[in-house]
Write a structure and sequence with these properties.
The structure is a homotetramer. Chain A is built from 9 helices and no strands. By secondary structure, chain A is mostly helical. The first copy, chain A, has one domain (19-89, 99-262).
């Protein structure tokens, strides 16, 4: 790798980007992962308690889908406009003389655009009734597959560790896309949705990790980008962030279940009490 | 790559092919992608409005399938004969002394043959009733998988960028084959069919892109085939052509839906009007 | 590759094996592929005509399965014993001092053993009723996956073309295993079974092709094992053998369908005649 | 590989680990593979004989699941604590100056943690009724996928044969995870569960093989870690251990079936005798 680097020149061997550029998408993915897991759990819990008490009709979730679409489109529009404003703007004509940085900016523009398509699909599916609802899942898997494709072609001529952290990003966004595609093919499965959300959470926290590795803030010692041991260490850190995503989603699940149950008690105490007894009986029966 | 190139000799380092040789399959794939998306949307829309008004019976689509098969077989026959006529013809005996160009021509001949098999399958399925209809999907996935296999073995000893653009061709034809195979395994799914059509559209437009990159027409400056930045730029262009395919199919969907609805209004206005009110009520109910 | 070859020594650079050693498995796979396709077509055709005339009960196919198992086990036993007899026998203790040829013989022994397991599974499933029938498909996919694994580790230190032809063998046996595994997971699908049979036929004819390439019989000029053009030529030949497998299976299908129909006519002419009229009516209706 | 090794230094070229460190996980995986196969077979056999005689209610299996979860969590806790106690303990803060051995220990800690999560999932699913039961399968596939990811990043800078044996470990744990994921997506399938168990058994015995290859106990001659022939020999040994796993599971199946039948005879002889006659009749009918 080093040999070919020398040919390309020193321009590429410097690390491109900055800490906020990786922290912002990290926050975005973490928030949207948290939101998707919340939505999935809420749907699941409401469906289970539907026969006892009215909460969370189909219309409510459709409206949430609509608002989610608006939010995603807004965020991607802000991203695209910000990219033009702060960076002088990418040229929209493919031209082979453009320098490296312009290409990187075009790649980000494309990323934003495909996530924007996901937002548009959310809006369309929640307003036009003739469009199949699974279009959202398809565009979601699409957006993440395109992301993994772009990041795969993002790291030509970089250092070993820089490539490795982006390869893991490719891995996690590919897995997210794959999960969304399996969801698109099969029927509703709460665990698949939560698995996808955990991958999105992992991606968010991994963006932060990349930021800390490549641009150590506040005078901390920089990582040696050519040391194999650091690759092994980062692969461990990747697994820990994955475990963290699991714990976040588990806590979220426990919290929402508790919230819905306590709300149900207040609104229609008699029915729930009746149900709970039945449930307890069933549980004790199954535990026997 | 350059080192091994020198051993093989300068004969291979020149770019083989010309602009029309990439523009023609581009047009073919774009037209057939457009046709397949039109057919899928038409089937979907007609199925939804079947209970209100007669339009698009099963027999009509079977006849369309038959005509499609005839068209595909004709085009591949023209391709095969043209290959023999204009190029002096490939020898049909595998012989290890044949020069490189003859091998390339044999590869194209094989490509045409497998697309011809797809046409034959269309004809057989629409005439012989004992053959399962999913044979068409199987032969379709087959043709695209064979295409990706051949293009994978198409680029030995070429320049970096030349290899990269053909690798993306391998990717898109492999994905098309994969989608067709999933369609073969699962039941009807309009979105899967449209996804496959969008991959075919992407392949068509990518053939044009390859033509412009490798054989810039009209005195435009040639691309540097050894520059890594061009790879990153072309990966962005690939995504944009993919987005373009989505937009084309979305426009097609909107146009056909509008067309069918307006035709239905003219032919049997009373029933449709009745239906529309019911639909509007349902929509307003769901949006509530 | 050449550089590392020099280190290992000239012992490995000579091509190991002979023409009959590749022709025999070729015949075996071709015969079993033909038999499997015949069985699948027969089952399919008999199932369609079940309501008109008695032919091909479940018991008959179970007995065929039993006989197939016996045949496969016998053939693998002959192979294993022949390997011991003609070659002095592999040592059954893993020992790191064994020369290269002994390893190759152990690999063939393992191959035979797993195909023997497939035969045993056929026998067990057709005699013991408590074992699920899909075990046959599982062991079949197993045998082909193990074959692809072994051939993947079969070619260390060989010439480029020698490696390439074995890589294609890995590809086709992996695809056969994959098809058998999909059959194991899904319900009956005649086209999947025929696709698997066509891969087995392809494997059989590809063994012959390997024999002709590596050990040209009768004084024909040998192939240059280091020429890239030969790789491209052989990839074309691979596709043609695949097309040949399709044509063989298509002819087989037409022949069996014709045979079953002509037999049905003789045995119970009145009913079939009645049925045929109904079918013709249906066909003309669908073609309308 | 050797060239890059020299750069990293001689520290990495020595083989890290010892025989017990590979024998212990080997025993663990062998025992758990045996237990999982026993559980699957028991469930399958009990389900078939449910209509004749009471044995193995749902509650019993739920309690077994609970005990299994407790056992797994206990074992992983022992592993984690032992790792801290005997090795001085890994530092829990990601820091780029840590030496290689600390990273390896962190990797093992992560492995144990994810298998602990599997145990926790088993406990949760058998106590809290609102959690879907397929969570166990999901966490199982998760644990094995994470294991394959970690072992993939485990072997930087080692010798060829050392890398190869760990690559096969990656392969088998990836396949185990894949099988568990397919089980998670599809409904109950006894053969899939047994296939997964056989992969776990294979992994257990392969750990022993790794121990014997890298740390030959008792003065046996060490393996040449740079010889290609050894790779081919070990790939054969891998297949034989796989065949061994099949034989173990087959014997287990025969033993449990015999045990359940003989127990049923004692407990409720009349009914079983009646059933057996019916079965024999059916069998003779099917064999006819």
């Amino acid at each position: 790798m080093n040999g070919s680097e020398d040919k390309i020149g020193p321009k590429h061997s410097e690390v491109i980007g900055d800490f906020p550029g990786h922290a912002l998408p990290g926050v975005f993915f973490f928030v949207i992962g948290l939101w998707w897991s919340t939505k999935s759990i809420l749907k699941y819990v409401c469906k289970k308690h539907k026969q006892t008490c009215y909460l969370g009709s189909k219309a409510l979730f459709q409206r949430l889908e609509f608002l989610e679409g608006i939010a995603v489109v807004t965020m991607t529009l802000i991203g695209i406009i910000g990219l033009q404003f702060f960076a002088g703007g990418p040229h929209l004509i493919i031209h082979n003389e453009s320098p490296w940085k312009r290409v990187l900016r075009l790649q980000h523009l494309t990323l934003y655009f495909f996530f924007g398509l996901l937002g548009v699909a959310s809006i369309l599916c929640s307003t036009v009734s003739s469009i199949p609802v699974s279009l959202i899942k398809l565009m979601m898997s699409n957006a993440f597959f395109v992301e993994s494709f772009i990041f795969y072609n993002h790291t030509h001529g970089r250092e070993m560790l820089d490539i490795f952290v982006h390869q893991l990003l490719v891995l996690v966004s590919f897995l997210t896309g794959l999960m969304a595609f399996i969801e698109f093919l099969t029927q509703k499965n709460i665990l698949l949705e939560l698995l996808r959300s955990s991958f999105v959470l992992l991606q968010g926290s991994w963006f932060w990790q990349i930021g800390f590795v490549l641009f150590p803030p506040g005078g901390r010692t920089a990582w040696d980008l050519l040391d194999h041991d650091n690759i092994m260490l980062l692969s461990v850190g990747f697994c820990w962030l994955y475990a963290l995503a699991f714990i976040v989603i588990g806590a979220n699940y426990a919290f929402i279940t508790w919230l819905v149950k306590s709300r149900l008690k207040k609104q229609c105490p008699s029915e729930v009490g009746l149900l709970k007894n039945v449930e307890q009986e069933q549980e004790s029966e199954e535990e026997m």
